[in-house]
Design brief:
With 286 residues, the chain is an alpha/beta fold. 50% of the residues lie in helices and 13% in strands. The protein is built from 9 helices and 9 strands. Strand 3 and strand 4 form a beta hairpin. It is globular.
Length: 286
C-alpha cells in the first residue's frame, strides 16, 4: 500500500497533470494508492474526481482524527464476493472464533516479547466450546481486561491511569491507542472496499448505523502490533506530555501528530501486507 499523509493546517491541494501538489511538494499518482488528509485542507471536487479516477482512495480526517470520510470510486465492485459474504453468515460463529482466538494468541505473544507471561489456555478452551457470538464477546472482554492490566505496566506512569479508556480517551496513552486504532481501521476499510467487500457484513461485531463492522473484525488481528508500536513511541520519546491537549477527553495536538507522521507511515507500511494476508484468509473462509 502506497500512502501519503497530508496534515498541514489550511493547506491547498491541487492536481496538475498526474501529480498531487501542495506547497512545494509534488506526489505523482503512480506512487500512491491512498491519500490521508487532515486539518481543514482545501481541495476541489474536480481534483477529487481526478484522484479517484486514478485508483487513489482519499480518507478525510477531522483535526482530532476521531471522525472521517472515505472517498473512493463509485463504481460497483465484485458483486459475487458480496454474495459470498452474505451466504457465509451461516459460518459466522466459526469465523468469529478464528478472530477471537487469533487475537488472544497474538496478544499473549506480544506480552511474552515484553517478558510478561500469561496463560491463555482457559480462554482458548472456552472459545472452542462457545455456542454464541455473545459468549465469544464476553470471553474477549474478559481477556482484554486482564491484558491491559499487564500492558499499562509497560508504559511510563505519567502517561496513563492504568486502564483502557475510549470515547473519549482520558490520558495520553489511551489517546495514542485510540488514534492508531482509528487510523488502521480506516486503512482496513479502504482495502476491503478496494477488494470489493461489503464492510457492513461482519462476523464478530454487530453492524450499526454507518459502522464498518467487518473492518472492526479484522482490526482485532492487529491490535497487538499497534499496542507494541505505542510502547515504542514512548520508549523513543517521539511524543511528550506537551503533545496532547484536553477537550472533552485527551487527544494528540497538531504538533504531536506531526511528530508521529513519519512513524505512522512506517506502521502502516509494515501492516499493509499483513492486512492483505488476513483479507485473503477471510475470503478463503467464505
Amino acid at each position: 500500500m502506497k500512502i501519503a499523509i497530508i496534515d498541514k493546517k489550511d493547506v491547498a491541494i491541487s492536481v496538475q497533470n498526474s501529480t498531487i501538489k501542495f506547497d512545494d511538494i509534488k506526489l505523482p499518482f503512480k506512487l500512491l494508492d491512498t491519500l490521508l488528509i487532515s486539518n481543514n485542507a482545501k481541495i476541489s471536487t474536480k481534483d477529487i474526481i481526478k484522484i479517484n479516477k486514478n485508483n487513489i482512495n482519499i480518507v478525510l480526517f477531522n483535526a482530532y482524527s476521531n471522525q472521517s470520510s472515505i472517498i473512493t470510486s463509485s463504481n460497483p465492485k465484485n458483486a459475487q464476493l458480496k454474495l459470498q459474504q452474505y451466504n457465509a453468515l451461516d459460518k459466522k460463529l466459526d469465523i468469529a472464533k478464528y478472530i477471537v482466538s487469533q487475537k488472544i494468541q497474538r496478544h499473549i505473544y506480544q506480552l511474552k516479547c515484553n517478558d510478561i507471561i500469561i496463560d491463555g489456555t482457559d480462554y482458548l478452551t472456552k472459545i472452542k466450546e462457545a455456542q454464541h457470538i455473545e459468549t465469544l464477546l464476553g470471553i474477549e472482554g474478559s481477556f482484554a481486561r486482564a491484558y491491559f492490566e499487564h500492558y499499562f505496566t509497560l508504559l511510563p506512569k505519567k502517561f496513563h491511569k492504568s486502564k483502557r479508556t475510549k470515547r473519549p480517551p482520558l490520558d495520553p496513552a489511551n489517546a495514542l491507542l485510540s488514534y492508531f486504532y482509528y487510523i488502521v481501521h480506516k486503512i482496513i476499510t479502504v482495502k476491503l472496499l478496494t477488494y470489493g467487500f461489503e464492510t457492513s457484513i461482519s462476523y464478530l461485531h454487530t453492524p450499526f448505523r454507518d459502522h464498518d463492522a467487518l473492518s472492526s473484525d479484522l482490526l482485532e488481528l492487529f491490535r497487538d502490533q499497534i499496542n507494541q508500536f505505542v510502547i515504542l513511541v514512548f520508549q523513543e520519546n517521539i511524543v511528550s506530555i506537551n503533545s496532547f491537549q484536553k477537550r472533552g477527553g485527551v487527544y494528540l495536538n497538531y504538533e504531536g501528530k506531526k511528530a508521529l507522521h513519519p512513524h505512522l507511515k512506517d506502521l502502516l507500511d509494515g501492516l499493509s501486507h499483513k492486512i492483505d494476508t488476513e483479507i485473503a484468509n477471510l475470503k478463503g473462509m467464505l
